[in-house]
């Protein structure tokens, strides 16, 4: 490597992107482009960084496959942080394979972390877990180790394994401290907040209280019958019945769960499930049909019995019934849940993440924007959505280690 | 052209707090290497680090019998090895793209990395006296017994090669094992080269083809 590239790379490594830029600003050879790209990314100009890294990847010669792969990994990381989920995941996988083949374990691990983070973000938990299992974290230097443990914690949180999540966050904190990067330590700290912030509300016999993630986990293992309005399922420790695609049935189940052990008058059920103000005979007939369907769906977990005035839920084996509701009742809770990460999202990226049509997401965003709950930047294809900033923890860029070949 | 596999005689390092080797030279007793913000010297017999000088050290290193020369960013510094003081500074010919450095017969020879060139310069002024073209990137340069050798390193491929100082033609090549790079080059004046190993943080001793092969040279031409 030449002298100025070495000097610039050293400046970058010590957290001085301006010092790095000063040394290579006027150079357009491949290593200089790569360093400029990384420096611009660290300075927050992700658009310019992407262009520079793309040019760098192109400029490296055919024998410099490793340097090119590192550029592609950096590009992928920038895409991930900008929530550009349409970025080709295949290119990242290929770059990771190249780094593995050349023995660059550290950057290969970094690439794999990015792949897993992307899967986690778009909700492919099984795939993310499978991929993570192929990585031996003891081989990683502190920076990659912290990123790895954050991903492990992210999966554990979504799987409601709070003990595993807490342990991973503790390891992430140690690694971040060893890496001595304050922004990384802040990232770990903000991730830890998930465990100390109410994740849901418990409704039991008409009374409500907030629940931490840990308490949710305990509740789900307790054997009580849980009408889970966070995921639109009914579950006990032994089984889950999903009503996610049956909104009317879920609304009925929830109404029954909230009133338990009492019953719910027919008129109330009609109002909750059909939004019917004045019930007539046809409504009553429809309610009977829907109740029959609900009884069939829930048969392994509970019975639905008619009472004098309405209906009630009778769980099998005499368990209790509770309702688990989102911490804040929200029409577009899923959209808000994604935006809650504080990043700016394109509506198409949200659509990929939610598995919904772009039009549906667009409509939800417009309604949320009208209510002042989200805001947008830019126009047309460049438009990005975010929640009004509460506490600005950026997702920091770790970027592949020294881009240079030596 | 003669071609053979490089024979690695010994590996030194990695050394504490020196994760990269950027340049290598030999003062007759100790091997000096550049590690970014420091010049370090070790004893090639024991392998022990004997001293270091805090000075910017980003690429090639050379020794003229009295002083060390060290490339830093776009300049070449002349350093007193006793005090560590920078005595003089001249501009490097590649303007920062400089890589290897060697001293021979009163002049400095500077590799220009991606430019694939070696410049001969005036050590007082930095003026370019002449330029030799190579067909590979230049990572280290050394002169020994009238032979000009330089290192190359592209991706997984690296070698040490002797070139004709007039034409740049490759005369002899020692191929390094795959994944083993040469980031700095110096001869001990005898039968071994010291090769900087870049990011591996190692300095490797590589056998220099003996004078036996040199005397064989002409007979092969006959």
Would you spell out the secondary-structure blueprint of this structure?
The complex is a heterodimer of chains A (406) and B (222).
Chain A: H1 3-13, H2 17-24, H3 30-42, H4 46-59, H5 65-81, H6 89-101, H7 105-121, H8 125-133, H9 142-158, H10 162-179, H11 182-196, E1 200-204, E2 207-211, H12 213-221, E3 225-228, E4 233-236, E5 239-242, H13 247-259, E6 264-265, H14 266-274, H15 281-298, E7 302-306, E8 310-315, E9 321-325, H16 333-339, H17 347-354, H18 358-370, E10 375-377, E11 384-386
Helix pairs in contact in A: 1-2, 1-3, 2-3, 3-4, 3-5, 4-5, 5-6, 5-7, 6-7, 7-8, 7-9, 8-9, 9-10, 9-11, 10-11, 13-14, 13-15, 17-18
Chain B: E1 2-5, E2 8-12, E3 23-26, E4 31-34, E5 36-42, E6 49-57, E7 61-63, E8 68-72, E9 75-79, E10 86-91, E11 98-104, E12 107-112, E13 117-121, E14 128-133, E15 140-144, E16 147-154, E17 157-163, E18 170-175, E19 184-187, E20 192-196, E21 203-207, H1 211-221
Report what the structure shows.
The complex is a heterodimer of chains A (406) and B (222). Chain A is of the alpha+beta class and 406 residues long. Chain A is built from 18 helices and 11 strands. Chain A has helices at 3-13, 17-24, 30-42, 46-59, 65-81, 89-101, 105-121, 125-133, 142-158, 162-179, 182-196, 213-221, 247-259, 266-274, 281-298, 333-339, 347-354, 358-370, and strands spanning 200-204, 207-211, 225-228, 233-236, 239-242, 264-265, 302-306, 310-315, 321-325, 375-377, 384-386. In chain A, helix 4 (46-59) packs antiparallel against helix 5, helix 6 runs antiparallel to helix 7 and helix 13 packs across helix 15. Chain A is elongated and about 90 Å long. The termini of chain A are close together. Mean pLDDT of chain A is 86; it is low at 389-394. Chain B has one domain (2-207): Methylamine Dehydrogenase, Chain H, CATH 2.130.10.10. Chain B is built from 1 helix and 21 strands. The two termini of chain B are 15 Å apart. Mean pLDDT of chain B is 92; it is low at 213-222. Chain A binds chain B through residues 1-7, 10, 23, 27, 29, 61, 63-67, 102-103, 402, 405-406, and chain B through 20, 22, 36-37, 56, 58-60, 71-74, 92, 94-99, 112-114, 139, 153-157, 179, 181, 183, 198-199.
């Amino acid at each position: 490597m030449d002298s100025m590239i070495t000097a610039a790379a050293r400046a970058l490594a010590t957290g001085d992107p301006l010092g790095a830029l000063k040394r290579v600003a006027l150079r357009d050879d491949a290593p200089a482009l790569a360093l400029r790209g990384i420096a611009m990314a660290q300075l927050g100009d992700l658009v310019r960084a992407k262009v520079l890294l793309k040019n760098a990847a192109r400029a490296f010669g055919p024998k410099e496959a490793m340097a090119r792969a590192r550029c592609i990994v950096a590009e992928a990381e920038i895409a991930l942080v900008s929530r550009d989920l349409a970025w080709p995941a295949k290119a990242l996988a290929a770059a990771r394979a190249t780094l593995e083949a050349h023995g660059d374990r550290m950057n290969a691990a970094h690439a794999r972390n990015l792949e897993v983070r992307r899967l986690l973000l778009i909700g492919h938990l099984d795939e993310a877990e499978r991929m993570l299992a192929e990585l031996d974290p003891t081989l990683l230097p502190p920076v990659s180790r912290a990123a790895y443990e954050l991903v492990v914690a992210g999966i554990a949180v979504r799987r409601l394994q709070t003990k595993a999540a807490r342990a991973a966050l503790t390891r992430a904190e140690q690694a971040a401290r060893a890496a001595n990067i304050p922004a990384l330590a802040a990232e770990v700290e903000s991730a830890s907040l998930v465990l100390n912030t109410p994740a849901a509300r418990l409704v039991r016999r008409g009374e409500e209280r907030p629940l931490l993630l840990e308490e949710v986990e305990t509740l789900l293992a307790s054997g009580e019958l849980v009408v889970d309005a966070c995921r639109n399922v009914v579950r006990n420790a032994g089984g889950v019945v999903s009503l996610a695609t049956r909104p009317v049935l879920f609304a009925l189940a929830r109404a029954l769960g909230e009133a338990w052990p009492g019953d719910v008058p027919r008129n109330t059920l009609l109002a909750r499930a059909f939004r019917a103000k004045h019930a007539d005979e046809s409504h009553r007939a429809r309610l009977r049909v829907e109740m029959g369907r609900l009884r069939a769906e829930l048969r392994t977990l509970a019975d639905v019995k008619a009472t004098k005035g309405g209906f009630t839920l009778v769980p099998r084996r005499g368990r209790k019934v509770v309702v688990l509701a989102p911490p804040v009742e929200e029409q577009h809770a899923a959209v808000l849940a994604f935006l809650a990460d504080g990043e700016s999202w394109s509506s198409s990226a949200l659509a990929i993440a939610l598995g919904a049509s772009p039009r549906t997401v667009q409509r939800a965003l417009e309604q949320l924007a009208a209510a002042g709950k989200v805001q947008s930047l830019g126009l047309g294809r460049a438009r990005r959505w975010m929640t009004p900033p509460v506490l600005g923890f950026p997702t920091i860029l770790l970027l592949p280690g020294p881009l240079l070949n030596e | 052209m003669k071609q053979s596999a490089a024979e690695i005689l010994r590996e030194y390092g990695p050394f504490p707090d020196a994760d990269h080797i950027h340049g290598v030279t030999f003062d007759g007793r100790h091997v000096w290497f550049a590690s970014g913000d420091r010049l370090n010297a070790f004893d090639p017999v024991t392998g022990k680090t004997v001293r270091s000088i805090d000075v910017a050290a980003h690429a090639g290193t050379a020794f003229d019998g009295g002083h060390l020369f060290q490339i830093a960013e776009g300049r070449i510094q002349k350093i007193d090895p006793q005090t560590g003081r920078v005595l003089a500074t001249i501009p490097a010919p590649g303007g920062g793209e400089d890589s290897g450095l060697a001293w021979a017969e009163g002049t400095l020879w500077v590799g220009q990395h991606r430019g694939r060139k070696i410049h001969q310069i005036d050590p007082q002024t930095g003026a370019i006296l002449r330029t030799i073209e190579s067909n590979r990137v230049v990572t280290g340069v050394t002169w020994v017994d009238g032979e000009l050798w330089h290192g190359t390193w592209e991706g997984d491929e690296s070698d040490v090669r002797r070139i004709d100082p007039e034409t740049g033609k490759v005369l002899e090549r020692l191929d390094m094992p795959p994944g083993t790079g040469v980031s700095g080059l110096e001869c001990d004046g005898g039968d071994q080269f010291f090769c900087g190993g870049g990011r591996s943080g190692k300095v490797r001793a590589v056998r220099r083809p003996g004078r036996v092969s040199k005397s064989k040279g002409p007979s092969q031409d006959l």
